[in-house]
Design a protein that fits this description.
The protein is built from five helices and 13 strands. The chain is α+β, with helices and mostly antiparallel strands. Strand 7 and strand 8 form a beta hairpin. The protein is globular and about 50 Å long.
C-alpha cells in the first residue's frame, strides 16, 4: 500500500482564530482513514487544530501519517483572480486528499513556466476535472455548473459549501465549453476566487459569483 510513503492532509482556514469548516475537514479525514484502512490518528485532532490556529488569521495544515498527526501553520495565500491554463499532464482520480500530489505539482509547474498562476487538469477522456488546489465552477446562463464528482475529483470542502449555497449542476464538459463563460475557483482556504484570465483571454465577471463569495464563510 502507498501509505508507507503517503499521508492524508487537510488544510483549513483560520479566521480570527476560528476554524469555520473544522468539523467538515475532520469528517473527510476520518472517511478517508476508514476507506483506505489506515491507522486511526491518536489524540484530539480538533483540539490540536484549534490550538494551532491561536487567535489569528492564517492556514492550519494537518498531516496524518501512520496513526500520528502533525499540525503546522502558515499565511493565507493570495486571493487575487488568477490566470489559468490547461495542463498537459492528465488528471487522475483523486478521491482522497493524500500527499501523493505529483500530477498537481506538475500541472502547477507547467503554469509557472507559461507565466500563469495555476492550471486546470483534464481527464484522458477530455473532460475538465479540477485545479491544482481548487474546485471549479462556472455560469452557463442561469445555471451554475461544476465538474461531475464521478470524474474522480476531490470532494472539496469548499465545493460542498458552494453546493449548499446554490443549486449546482454536476456535468461533464470539454475545454471548448468554457468559451465566454464566467469561471471561478473555490477551496476551503481562499474561499471563492474568480478566474481572471483563462488560456490568455480575460474571463467575464458575474455579480452572482460575488454574492456567493459574500455568503461563503459561515458566521
Amino acid at each position: 500500500m502507498a501509505w508507507v510513503t503517503n499521508g492524508l492532509i487537510e488544510t483549513m482556514r483560520a479566521r480570527g482564530g476560528r476554524l469555520p469548516f473544522l468539523e467538515r475537514h475532520l469528517a473527510r479525514l476520518r472517511r478517508s482513514v476508514v476507506e483506505l484502512g489506515l491507522d486511526v490518528p491518536a489524540g484530539d485532532l480538533a483540539e490540536a487544530a484549534r490550538a494551532a490556529a491561536g487567535g489569528e488569521d492564517g492556514v492550519v495544515r494537518m498531516e496524518v501519517r501512520d496513526g500520528r498527526a502533525a499540525v503546522t501553520t502558515g499565511p493565507v495565500p493570495s486571493v487575487d483572480p488568477p490566470s489559468v491554463i490547461i495542463a498537459e499532464v492528465p488528471h487522475a482520480p483523486y478521491p482522497h486528499k493524500t500527499t501523493a500530489r505529483g500530477r498537481f505539482e506538475e500541472a502547477h509547474a507547467e503554469a509557472e513556466r507559461a507565466g500563469a498562476d495555476d492550471a486546470l487538469l483534464v481527464t484522458a477522456s477530455g473532460h475538465v476535472a479540477e485545479g491544482t488546489v481548487w474546485s471549479l465552477f462556472w455560469w452557463d446562463g442561469d445555471e451554475l455548473c461544476t465538474p461531475a464528482a464521478d470524474l474522480g475529483i476531490l470532494p472539496g470542502v469548499g465545493r460542498a459549501r458552494v453546493m449548499e449555497l446554490a443549486a449546482v449542476a454536476e456535468v461533464r464538459v470539454t475545454v471548448a465549453s468554457f468559451a465566454g463563460r464566467s469561471l471561478f475557483l473555490v477551496n476551503a482556504v481562499r474561499g471563492i476566487v474568480p478566474i481572471g484570465s483563462f488560456r490568455g483571454r480575460d474571463v467575464p465577471l458575474d455579480a452572482r459569483t460575488a454574492e456567493l463569495s459574500h455568503r461563503f464563510w459561515p458566521d
